[in-house]
Amino acid sequence: MRDTVAAATELGYVLTFLLGLSFLSVFSIWTWELQDERGDVWLEQAMEENLDSIAEAVERADLASRQGGDVTYAEPVDLLLSKAVNLQLRLVLDDNGLLMQDKGGTLIFTRDISSASATNHSGEVELAGLERIWVLLEGNNVTITSNQPGF
Known about the structure:
- By secondary structure, the protein is of the alpha+beta class.
- The protein has one domain.
- The protein contains 1 helix and 8 strands; from the N terminus they run H-E-E-E-E-E-E-E-E.
- It has one helix spanning 4-65; strands at 73-78, 90-94, 97-101, 108-112, 120-122, 124-126, 132-138, 141-145.
- The strands form 2 sheets. The protein has a 4-stranded mixed β-sheet with strand order 1-7-8-5, covered by helices on one side.
- The N and C termini lie far apart (96 Å).
């Protein structure tokens, strides 16, 4: 006589294992998508905060230039995302404002600056691996650079 009870038990074990495996797979995919989506939000918030900090430093340099005379000013700005080298972010300062974008141009963030002073604004910095950039005012020019000024 065949032992059908043992076969049914073994089949139950296999089906239970497959059901658990499918639940684990669905849960893993769900958590991966959740983490990936949250990472995108954190990235955007960090880029916005970086732009705000740099724009404020540029505004302070403009304010210093309005003091008159030959004013020299330097301010370090600590950056978020210094470890995100795979994004290949670059920051551009011109007379119209700040632009931060990745190499592919899929992430683009801008900030207007008031330009209430007669200073010229220029500079471009690759942000990969940088923890700090400098906003400099020298000779009526506001620039951004990754190098610490020598004054």
